[in-house]
Amino acid sequence: MFETSHSLIDQLCHESDAASWERLVALYSPLLRGWIDRYDVQASDADDLIQDVLMVLMRELPSFRHSQQPGAFRSWLKRIVINRLRNFWRARGRDGAAAAGGDVMRRLDEFEDDRSRLSGIWQQEHDQHLTRRLLEMIEPRFTPSTRQAFRRLVLDGADADDVAAELGMSLNAVFTAKSRVLRELRAIGKGLLD
Length: 194
Prior knowledge:
Structural class: mainly alpha
CATH topology of the largest domain: Rna Polymerase Sigma Factor, Chain: A
Oligomer: single chain
Strand content: under 5%
CATH architecture of the largest domain: Orthogonal Bundle
Number of strands: 0
Number of domains: 2
CATH superfamily of the largest domain: RNA polymerase sigma factor, region 2, helix turn helix motif
């Protein structure tokens, strides 16, 4: 079981260890694959690109300074993904980009624009993916009833009175469950999620 006294990003920046990097790779690899696949990259090349993005992240993260603005880490990661994809397609020349549908660079330009539809999708998918994955990491720390109350109340959007009745808990216990899980989620996700 891992400690949540520091956020994952703090652990990676200041107390980096193999277990923290493994958690980051497990958190981000599926998200990165989904985005890299959108840019017409073959599966074997996608594996290499994911490794490339993670290597840049590993190399540069110790010098990353969070601006305290919402989405700072997410935006920084997006720039790394875009740059690695651009480098990938430039290395293949015009024929490679044309074979991939010809509009790869245009789509990368759109992705780079923070006001674009693609950028909005990135933000939403990033936060949803990270929330789900971080929640999976911390859920074993809680009792089944606490997990159920949190999921029903926060993720399903159920009414607190209904959740209390369904689970045979007091209303106060439902809100306490929500508070405990959110506190842990915020602690581990600090800097990664806003």
